[in-house]
Amino acid sequence: MNMKKAAVLLILMLTAATFAWAGPPQEKDSQLERGHKVYDKWCFPCHGTGVGKPGTDALKARGQNPAVLEERTDLTAALINTVVRHGVGFMPVFRKTEISDAELDAIDAYLMRNNKK
Amino acid sequence: MRLPPGVSAGDFSAAIKELESAIGKEWVFTSDEDVNLYRDSYSPFWHENQEPIPSAAFAPDSVEQVQAVVRIANRYKIPLWTISTGKNLGYGGSAPLLNGSAVLDLKRMNRVLEVNDKNHYALVEPGVSYFDLYRHIRDRDLPVWIDPPDPGWGSPMGNALERGGGYTPMRDHFDAHCGMEVVLPDGELVRTGMGALPTAKTWQQYRYGFGPYMDGMFSQSNLGVVTKMGFWLQPQPDAYLSGSVTVPKHDDLTPLVEIFANLMNSGVVQATTTVVSPLAYSRDPELVKLRASGSTRDLEDYAGQKGIGYWSVSLPLYGPEKVIAAQWEYAKQKFSAAIPGATFRDGASYKFPLTEEQLTKIVNPVPFGVPSLQTFSIGGPKSQGHMWFSPIIPMTGEAVIEAQSVFDKVAQSLGYVTGTTGFPIWNFFARAFVIIYFFPIEHDIEKNRRSREIFRRLIKTAAEHGWGEYRTHTAFMGDIMDAYSFNNHSLLRFHETVKDALDPNGILSAGKNGIWPKSMRKAGA
Amino acid sequence: MKVPPGLSAKDFSDVVKQWTEIVGKEWIFTSDEDVEMYRDYYSPLWHEDNDPVPSAAVAPDGVEQIQAVLKVANEYKVPLWTISTGKNLGYGGSAPLLSGSAVLDLKRMNRVLEVNDKNHYALVEPGVSYFDLYRYIRQHNLKVWLDPPDPGWGSPVGNSLDRGGGYTPMRDHFDNHCGMEVVLANGEVIRTGMGALPGSKTWQQYKYGFGPYIDGMFSQSNFGVVTKMGFWLLPEPEAYLSGTVTVPKHDDIYKMVEVFAYLVDSSIVQATTLITSPLWYVRNDPELTGIREHGTTQDLDAYAARKGAAYWSVSLPFYGPAKVVAAQWEFAKEKFSAAIPGAKFLDGASYRFPLSDEQVAKMADTVPFGIPSLSIFSMIGKNIGHLGFSPIIPMTGEAVLESQRVFTQVYRDLGSPEGEAASFPVFSFFARAFVNIYLFPIEHDVEKNRKTREIYRRLIKESAARGWGEYRTHTTFMKDIAETYSFNNHSLLRFHEMIKDAVDPNGILSPGKSGIWPKRMRTAKA
Fold first, then answer.
1. C476 to each of C41, C367, C372, C463, how far by Cα in Å?
2. Where exactly are the structural domains of chain B?
3. Which among C38, C91, C134, C303 is annotated as catalytic?
4. For residues C211 and C207, what is the distance between their CA atoms, to the nearest angstrom?
5. Residues on chain A touching B57 (C-beta within 8 angstroms)
6. CB-based contact B27 A61, cutoff 8 Å
7. For domain C243-474, is the CATH number 3.40.462.10?
8. ipTM score of the complex?
């Protein structure tokens, strides 16, 4: 993980920690909303629910439960970013002209929204 | 920082500066981290030295910016490799063929410029994906269909330029395009067909325009950068019906394909299907033994006992309900009259539009104009990628049987365990079959080396039989172009003449489909 | 003896001598009498000084002879003008665009090389006519149809290279070609598509081959001499059915064309038809003339209603299994009925194939049934010849109305050599656009032809101003039309010129064709 990512992640963590009493809710909501949108566009076709989703099927075959990314509560930004930028199995790499760093941050936020604090 | 071949560090940094001012610093990628994102995720050279790695990537956002990039590349003789969405997986992904080329990434040009639901066409930019176009149409509730190929994240433009295929009656993607805008290697902008007429009203309705019809030369080529392309869409059909035909004996394949070809060539069947042998898949030990050492007669008996048939083809029919019902009836009559023992089964049947609920239940919605990534389950959950060997063979039973036996021998002689028999025969194109053999890509040097060896042997063997491939991974482009050698490679030499005239500095996609610029051409090709 | 531009008489007689050695004395023509036969019989420049006259004609029989002829032409820079059967009447016939060019006449290369009735294709040489190919198929009793254009003496190779159209589902002739053999200007022979693969099994079954698909470059062009070409044929259909749709009101054209486009684009209607207004053919009713000039749309509707005439009509041709074509016609009727109140339907001709000889003998026009004919010439009427003006317009009612209005106005402004302005029938020769085909009469009358050219050029201009371009034209107007395709300072034409210079550096092949001139003859302009 590079410094920039780490910094973004740190900010996100702080935001999450402080949200209960002082965080700017709109900002966080809009980041989640954005993450949801980017997820729908780029991740859902492979990792979504329903039939014909090879990403979900592959994770299921590897014993991952839940296999649908949106349902997980254990994803970290580091893991998500590594997979998106380096690929895994038959999942190819995504370039910055496809998913920008900012969009990737939003995906991270969205997929980590239900993580235990 | 990596350098393109033949470009000095000084020149390259000067070029990068100019590029940054032309398209924005943010969209010029030179760090290893960023450039690595352009490597082929399914490279058959994984972990090997020959894997081509780009030196940089440039991502313009407009035609003017593309022109600027091309002009700068000319000044510094920087080899570019153009990609649209860069998801051409199995054929090279977003990686160049020539190591050190800079990737010209058009993904940011992702505007759907027009969708017309009265004359049924779309005009799009290269970075638009099938998903994007589908979403655009859905959001506006337009009653037109796109024709996606297997994976939906690719570009309609990129796929058509690579001459890919889909499943509906618009399945020949290059054939269904209408009108292009192209930046030539010198930076000049042309529009083809009716687009050459200022204020043209029929750019997406009539293909040819006036004078030479140039569009085809920009497909599978490196003669220009296509920046806009029109596509004919299908009006949403009323209904779909699929029926499958099964015949009992090995030799029934000949009349089966003959009738099939008649139906296709008459326009009675208009969409993509496969001819398969139900005997090819089952893992029943008895059948496995028969496949290995039984006679044709044994296999026929087995098929008879199990009631599965020796060959089968399913016919996808799209159109008004009564028309497709009549088409299916007619097909049944034709097959029955020609082949004793032919049996028929009604398959899926739909009325359109499909409801959301129906859609969620359809494993593969691609034949209904809905893009998907379902195809990536092809290698199983542990797969690390794939590539394809895809020869065009005649639409005859004889050719199917000959091709299967010939390719099987190659695979067996090289100890390829999976074997090739039983891969379905497709009709992605109007009047010929294409066999699509799946090769797994592994992160394993030895296995990939072996795959490449088999692949090359298959190319040679196919060529000896008069069969050529329709498309290939960058790793084999030179090999396949070599096979198209009539009259001492006169077609390739013609391409080279044109290449030299249009792209004297050889900046566009060096090596694509075997076409190299003069400066990089081997003597005595 | 006329001499090609840029050659001395001595050079040209050397050329002729060498060509004679190649093709034999019998197949080189230089006498005025012989060369005269290559002039355009329907020339709009008849009796005028600028009517192009060839210097000679040379008729090689085979690729090797063509190569040898080109070698000499390159050495002396002789401009050649390639023809196949040379019956491209209305578009220049067998005459060159550049006066003094030598005609490269491929009529002797007239072999039908293969017809396959299992995969439904033919491979032919350029001199084969539609009649020849039809005869071959009949003689061998093959169950396939060719798709002839109106006149049957033309060449499938030539017609499709000129991007002509026919009437059956294989109507787009260039689109239905598959595979070419081309002799390049330098004498090199290439085969395109799968033909580049030695021993190829699918040259006529898969179009693209591998790498750039270059066939289109050789259509409407002067980049090579096509010596073989494959065509997809239609398996003989089981049946034919035609039905006519009429609608009562002027404004019904919008919905009518919309439903029509839907049916065509859905492949429910797959063949060529014609949109027309029965009122167009009423010529001598002063009441109608008055309404045309001063009346409103409602007046026209009322006139049509009074006369019991429909305002618009289109007949739909269906080819296929009997039950399928019946279902297609039923579906079409439903669609038109739902969209247009008052739409009426009339069942037309219906056939089962093959037709008996007796049936064929009774047909006025056999072309829509795959049987070449010359009946078109009796339809065109009394004039000596004709000249087609054929803009591509959008497949919309708006465009149909606008083009009628604009073109009629040109006649009002300029007058007409034939009296009242004619209508401009709207054809669907191509998949997704209409083409207006207006036939001008050609006379051996300098004044009338001059007027015709004036009107023709005005039509080109008016079309271009509205974003409509012509799909094909007579040699006389090639330059005018190429100039209208001028996007980005004529960048497409300049691109064609770059290619021309690269593949034909001596500029020997068909100078001026489709507006493309070799470097040495190019005017500084453009």
1. 13, 28, 28, 17
2. 9-105, 112-235, 237-352+391-469, 482-520
3. C91
4. 12
5. 95, 97
6. no
7. yes
8. 0.96
